[in-house]
Design brief:
The protein is mainly alpha-helical. Helix content is 77%, strand content 0%. The termini are far apart.
Length: 126
């Protein structure tokens, strides 16, 4: 049986709404956090192994690439938090209207970036 539905698989030309981006980024941020767990466990084990291990873990975390990864992970945590709150509100049937849903999606994306900016400001100021 052949379907009459159109098939459009050019993913680079599909125009996703903000709600679609928030959904995809929510999943990606969740995967990033799960993948960071073993790395964090290894770093923690290194840090508690002794004074030299702590110095090695500190030196590793002060590397520019590690700092970049930590910034990206901080964004991941913040986006996942704000998007999760948005999805909880949607589950409670709050903000289901199209305009409100689009607005809340933009708020999630902007809030994650703004909160990351605050985190980076506090890091530099400290």
């Amino acid at each position: 049986m052949q379907s009459t539905r159109p098939v459009f698989l050019d993913l680079w030309r599909i125009k996703l709404p903000a709600t679609g981006f928030v959904s995809i980024l929510h999943r990606v941020s969740g995967v990033l956090m799960v993948l960071a767990i073993p790395v964090g466990a290894v770093l923690f084990d290194l840090a508690v192994s002794g004074p030299q291990g702590f110095a090695d873990a500190t030196a590793l975390l002060h590397h520019w690439f590690a700092r970049l990864v930590l910034i990206f992970l901080a964004w991941s945590i913040l986006h996942h938090l704000f998007a999760g709150i948005r999805y909880l509100l949607l589950d409670l049937r709050i903000g289901l209207e199209r305009a409100t849903s689009r607005l809340s999606a933009w708020i999630v994306m902007l809030a994650a970036v703004a909160a990351l900016g605050l985190v980076l400001y506090w890091e530099v100021a400290a």
